[in-house]
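Shipment paperwork, digital attachment
Item: protein structure file
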Amino acid sequence: MFSDSYHGLLTREQFTFHILITTSNHYVSFCLEHLLHSDSRGSIQNSMVTSETQRLIEQDLKMNEFWSRRTYVILTGASKGIGQCLAVEIGKLLVPESTIVLMARDTNGLEKTKEMVNKENSDILVECYSMDFYNSNVTMFEKIVEPIDSTKYELFLLIHNAGSVGNLEHLAADMNDPDEWNKYMLLNLYSVTCLTSAFLSKFNSDTTERCIINMTSLLGIEPYKSVGYYCIGKASREMFFRVLALENPILNVLNYSPGPVLTDMYTHMSLNSKDKELREKLTSKEQQQYIVKVENACQKLVNILAMRKNCSLSDFNYKAI
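Attachment content:
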């Protein structure tokens, strides 16, 4: 197990390096050439450039190796934000005869995502399922995957992105309503375990790679006031996947924290949290320096999947909040 984290502000050199490892080869070449002429610390030795270029080439080869297989993808929360962007970024890389299944409640949002994916790659099948995860069960998910001919695919990928922040008006001492607890956990934990169970039951070959990604948050390990539901939901999901990975050593499991991404959820939390300190922190000028663009968070995940595909359990934090 390993953990990678970015904490605080990136230096100019660190930020440049970050760009280099998360962009296309064309842009990488531009950055290297630009740095040769404009690095503030002086010229870069040719040997360093050669070494970095070689590393980037090796990374690109691994990327091609991972995404060159016929892949079956299930992505929840795919109607907007991170889920929508992930669908597009993954769709660009999928080879013909691959399938990406998009799940969310918002039918219009799903159709928009499907249109965006098809625009990038018309050689893959995109399926949409409008689902209420507050009322889901394993049977619903089994019906979706049951008709799939698993022999057609060489990689199975499940991405748990759907989730909610919970009631921001409640401090921990106010979280005393079992019905509200059940509703929150149905979406944020129970639906996750049910879909995972259906996924693993259907795609159970030991010879075909299976990857499960849990979109998590720093708040799953660090408490913040007035977001108790969210903190507990993320913590419980992380522990579920830790146990799952321990019980299934050949299964690839990744807990991925995209960092403070400017999504509707982030905005909702920053405006409506009952805790004044948290509202001020999320809207402060200093915090804005740490905000991660949706596209960068998604591209980073795509790279991680390709580069670290042989780990049974990984934790990756894009940035600390």
